[in-house]
Amino acid sequence: MKKTKTTTKDKILDLLKKEVTLTVNDLTEHLNITHMAVRKHLHVLEKEHLISSEEVKQPMGRPLQIYSLTEKAEKIFPKNYEGITVNFLEDIRELYGEESINYLFKKREQRLTEEYLARIGQKSNAEKIDEIVKTQNEKGYMADVSQLDENTYELVEYNCPILAVAQEFKIACQCETELFQKVLGTEKVSRKSCKTDGADHCKFLIKF
Asked: I want to staple 55 with a disulfide (CB 3.0 to 4.6 A). Which of 63, 75, 161, 162 is the partner?
């Protein structure tokens, strides 16, 4: 559920979401605050890359400054990709059986393996781990790693961006473990805890 918007910055983002483009005058009318206050908030939002501005020429007078949301700001608003994905996967399973689901996840694992291997190249074990963490973070996993000894690492994922899918289709977790094994070049990758089992985080023990 979307949280109730309270700050002026949040209200500006909501207004731009609804109206698409607005001027400073538009915002002062909507928010009932001064031009100076609006410009101050707009400046902050522009620095945070949440809004962008464009000059539009007028028949008379100075050009108008028009503000709109950036792609980064669009990501703030609620999405339900997971919900629709789970529904589609359930439909596929019903129509074509469990094997079709296994095939889809294996295809995904294969695609990700190729992507990760291309990024890792011929790096050392420590560099491979760092690249895994970097890639997982780009995908929203909030990953972190700690080195336990010369050849052993613990990888922790504080977030699971596909949690709803993984809870319904545990093969997603299995494929992730196998992905790490293939990309890191070691079979000694084991999942020690999993969010789908009620744990706070997903943890992996990796040995080279």
From this structure: 63
Please give the angle made by the CA atoms of 71, 72 and 73, to the nearest 5 degrees: 90
What would the mean pLDDT of 184-188 be, rounded to a whole number? 96
pLDDT in tens, 99-136: 999 999 999 999 999 999 999 988 999 999 999 999 99
Helices 98-120 and 171-184, interaxial angle, to 10°?
30
Is 3 within a domain?
A: no
Contact 50, 70 (CB under 8 A): yes
Q: How far apart are CA 155 and CA 164, in angstroms?
A: 21
Tokens matching residue 71: 């792609």
Q: Does residue 169 share a domain with residue 139?
A: yes
Identify the helix (H) or strand (E) that includes residue 163: helix 163-168
Q: Are 142 and 156 in contact (CB under 8 A)?
A: no
- Do residues 130 and 184 share a domain? yes
164 in Cβ contact with 83 (< 8 Å) = yes
Model pLDDT, residue 2: 44
Residue 150, Ramachandran bin (φ over 0: left; ψ between -120 and 50: alpha; else beta): alpha
